[in-house]
């Protein structure tokens, strides 16, 4: 009888400990997700406010395009260096510092007296976002056992992706009701609350094997290389893909990134440890994430343009019209992470990519200039959103769930860099298609070309994950440290 009581007591204690650990993990996940929510939201939330910016500074229309470009360039350029800094000096410190820099940038955006001032403020925002993003995931990973990480990272990744997808809806509501300043000021209370909670809740962690220094030459080279590559991509619709300016910038970025790889092979503690690519899941997630983000962010952009330009929807109405997709994805995202643990990340992404490709192709072939929302657009968004939910959380978890502890922030930064460059490329390509189509007798031709491209690259992400993704062996993990 006494032994039975001890067994029951032991089981109860284990359950209580498990609940306690899960509660703490859930709190850290929720807190860090706030940071990634704000950073991702600001990638797309300002899109619907562009008309308000032009009305405020009509003489600076060309400068205002840099409100989007500067944010994307600075964010993509800073991620790898930020990941190395977080691993070396502390992930909690990086997350909280990035949060404050992002908040300061948001306030400066809201009070901008000129267009150029806002562009500079957007760069400050992006620097803060680049610092906190890899640190936020690196803080989550130690709170969960390996078998639980896919679900946790799935939630983290889904929050980021769905926040970006919800940007047009939230931005439209804010602009229509409170003015353009509100799309930046909305960040402030979230940042303050997350900072206050984070100072008490988060535990500091770092790569104890690395020196408290960074290869600053390598950091400078990669910032310039990724920055110039992203610059060439986001300005391609204005400069032309094969113009002298584009080709020169691409050549310089190519040389800089080549020098960065060489540097990483030479120094003892590089910005990016190239041994990570010995882990098959890192390569698969980088390729799959690049292709998925290219199609996903292009889809958000092109669908919003169709609703506003062809169907004549207002910013807030177009945001609401697109909301069924993110809602469906949100419902599917968390279960997708658990499913990936059972049947494999590659299979889940492949199914999700196939669903997305079918949904986008259905849209491409059957949409018409006449408004038919409830019988066509709404169900198509729900169907496509299911595919997004399967992909977006699973690709995030596949990139980082099996990383060795010292490489948490670095691995996260690598994946986010690939996805950010992919997103910039996707939006630039479909923007070029829309511009080219305006010179023809059928302006909708650009939309159809864009949807064809999107369905193809989304399928490519599924194929890459299905064929390349493998869980690491103990030997591969040992070689990567």
Q: Overview of this structure, please?
A:
81% of the residues lie in helices and 0% in strands. With 481 residues, it is mostly helical. It has a single domain (2-214, 269-480), classed as MFS general substrate transporter like domains (Growth Hormone, Chain: A, Up-down Bundle). The protein is globular and about 60 Å long. Helix 1 packs antiparallel against helix 9 (187-201). The termini are far apart.
Q: Which structural traits does this protein have?
A:
481 residues; 81% helix; Growth Hormone, Chain: A; single chain; globular; 20 helices; mainly alpha
Largest pleated sheet: none
- Give me the CATH fold name: Growth Hormone, Chain: A
- The overall pLDDT average reads 85
Number of strands: 0
In percent, how helical is the residue content?
Answer: over 70%
Total of domains? 1
Topology of this structure?
Blueprint: H1 2-44, H2 50-56, H3 61-64, H4 66-89, H5 91-110, H6 115-140, H7 146-178, H8 182-185, H9 187-201, H10 216-234, H11 236-239, H12 244-266, H13 280-310, H14 315-322, H15 324-343, H16 345-366, H17 373-400, H18 408-437, H19 445-468, H20 474-480
Helix pairs in contact: 1-6, 1-7, 1-9, 4-5, 4-6, 4-10, 4-18, 5-6, 5-9, 6-18, 7-14, 7-15, 7-17, 10-12, 10-18, 13-14, 13-17, 13-18, 13-19, 15-16, 15-17, 16-17, 16-19, 18-19
């Amino acid at each position: 009888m006494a032994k039975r009581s001890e067994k029951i007591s032991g089981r109860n204690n284990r359950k209580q400990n498990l609940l306690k650990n899960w509660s703490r993990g859930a709190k850290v996940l929720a807190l860090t997700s706030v940071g990634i929510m704000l950073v991702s939201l600001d990638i797309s939330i300002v899109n619907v406010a562009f008309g308000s910016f032009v009305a405020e500074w009509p003489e600076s229309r060309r400068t205002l395009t840099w409100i989007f470009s500067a944010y994307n360039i600075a964010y993509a350029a800073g991620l790898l260096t930020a990941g190395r800094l977080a691993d070396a000096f502390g992930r909690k410190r990086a997350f909280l510092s990035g949060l404050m820099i992002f908040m300061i940038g948001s306030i400066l955006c809201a009070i901008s007296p000129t267009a150029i001032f806002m562009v500079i403020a957007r760069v400050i925002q992006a620097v803060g976002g680049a610092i906190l993003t890899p640190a936020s995931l690196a803080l989550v990973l130690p709170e969960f056992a390996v078998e639980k990480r896919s679900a946790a990272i799935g939630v983290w990744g889904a929050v980021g992706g769905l926040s970006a997808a919800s940007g047009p809806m939230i931005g439209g509501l804010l602009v229509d009701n409170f003015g353009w300043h509100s799309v930046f000021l909305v960040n402030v209370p979230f940042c303050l609350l997350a900072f206050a909670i984070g100072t008490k809740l988060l535990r500091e962690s770092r790569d104890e094997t690395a020196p408290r220094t960074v290869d600053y030459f390598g950091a400078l080279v990669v910032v310039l290389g990724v920055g110039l590559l992203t610059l060439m991509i986001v300005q391609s619709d204005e400069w032309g893909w094969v113009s002298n300016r584009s080709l020169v910038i691409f050549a310089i970025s190519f040389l800089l990134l080549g020098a960065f790889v060489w540097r990483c092979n030479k120094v003892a503690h590089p910005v990016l440890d190239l041994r990570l690519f010995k882990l098959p899941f890192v390569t698969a997630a980088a390729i799959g994430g690049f292709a998925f983000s290219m199609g996903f962010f292009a889809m958000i952009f092109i669908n919003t343009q169709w609703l506003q330009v062809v169907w004549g929807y207002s910013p807030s109405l177009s945001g609401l019209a697109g909301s069924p997709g993110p809602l469906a994805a949100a419902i599917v995202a968390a279960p997708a992470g658990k499913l990936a643990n059972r049947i494999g990340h590659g299979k889940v992404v492949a199914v999700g990519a196939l669903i997305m490709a079918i949904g986008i192709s259905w849209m491409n072939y059957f949409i018409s200039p006449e408004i038919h929302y409830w019988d066509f657009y709404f169900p198509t968004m729900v169907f496509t959103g299911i595919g997004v939910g399967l992909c977006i959380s699973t690709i995030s978890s596949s990139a980082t769930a099996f990383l060795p502890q010292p490489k948490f922030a670095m691995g996260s930064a690598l994946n986010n860099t690939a996805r950010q460059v992919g997103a910039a490329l996707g939006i630039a390509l479909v923007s070029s298609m829309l511009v080219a189509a305006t010179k023809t007798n059928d302006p909708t031709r650009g939309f159809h070309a864009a949807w064809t491209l999107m369905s193809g690259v989304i399928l490519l992400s599924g194929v890459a994950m299905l064929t390349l993704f493998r869980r690491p062996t103990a030997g591969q993990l040992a070689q990567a440290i």
